[in-house]
């Protein structure tokens, strides 16, 4: 079993900053990629950012230039630094990890989600 534990969520005012963390533990043979998704009220879940173990990154247009995804391979942890937050960033943020449990078993896992309300 692989579990993802998220932390760092909470309320923040527009223009503020927040850093989310997600740590994976359990049966991990090799990491492939980590990502952050979010789901705003009344909207579909969307991909926010991704990062591979080779440190290549992607960002959704809505967050490019404001959010930064990073990782610590030794800790099996991915971070999402969010700057200049806007009310439209309000969502439940989910960590997602793609990994090899063993040399022949590949799985993806989701974190429990963490609330990020952005309001004054």
Query: Could you give the order of the helices and strands?
Result: EEEEEEEEEE
Per DSSP, the total helix count is: 0
Oligomer: single chain
Contiguous runs where pLDDT drops below 50 for at least 5 residues: none
Query: What level of helicity do the residues show?
Result: under 10%
Strand composition percent: over 45%
Q: SS-based structural class?
A: mainly beta
Mean pLDDT: 96
Question: How many distinct beta strands?
Answer: 10
Largest sheet: 6 strands, antiparallel
Shape: elongated
Can you tag this structure with a few keywords?
120 residues, mainly beta, six-stranded antiparallel beta sheet, four-stranded antiparallel beta sheet, 57% strand
Task: Describe this entry's structure for a reader.
- By secondary structure, the protein is an all-beta fold.
- It is built from no helices and ten strands.
- The chain has strands spanning 2-7, 18-26, 30-39, 46-52, 57-59, 67-72, 77-82, 91-102, 105-110, 114-116.
- The strands form two sheets. Strands 3, 4, 5, 8, 9 and 10 form a six-stranded antiparallel β-sheet that branches.
- The mean pLDDT is 96.
Concise account of the structure shown:
The chain has strands at 2-7, 18-26, 30-39, 46-52, 57-59, 67-72, 77-82, 91-102, 105-110, 114-116. By secondary structure, it is an all-beta fold. The strands form two sheets. Strands 3, 4, 5, 8, 9 and 10 form a six-stranded antiparallel beta sheet that branches. A four-stranded antiparallel beta sheet has the order 1-2-7-6, with no helix packed on it.
